[in-house]
Amino acid sequence: MRATKKTKGRAVVHAYILIQTEVGKAAAVAAEISGIPGVTTSEDVTGPYDVIVRAEADTVDQLGQLVVAKVQGVEGITRTLTCPVVHL
């Protein structure tokens, strides 16, 4: 299983981060997360999750650091689920 894709000559790990927020906080959370380096898109959505983020990093470890140190630190988030992209 590969979780990397070459982008402009370098391998990159991509993932979707599914986020649940406190009631009424989805738009603010999505806006704040969109400014985090490594986040390529951040959108508030309806359904079981409130925000869906697409992120990228050079390694799986850096992706984990992005999620734990940056994304999960945003006020209003109650839970995250990180789904790495695989290329089968």
UniProtKB/TrEMBL annotation:
Q: Which protein is depicted?
A: AsnC family protein
Q: Superkingdom of this entry's organism?
A: Bacteria
Q: A Pfam family in this protein?
A: AsnC_trans_reg
Ranges for domain Transcription regulator AsnC/Lrp ligand binding come to 17-85
Against Gene3D superfamilies, the record matches this protein to:
3.30.70.920
InterPro entries in the record, alphabetically?
Answer: Dimeric_a/b-barrel, Tscrpt_reg_AsnC/Lrp_C
Show the coiled coil region(s): none
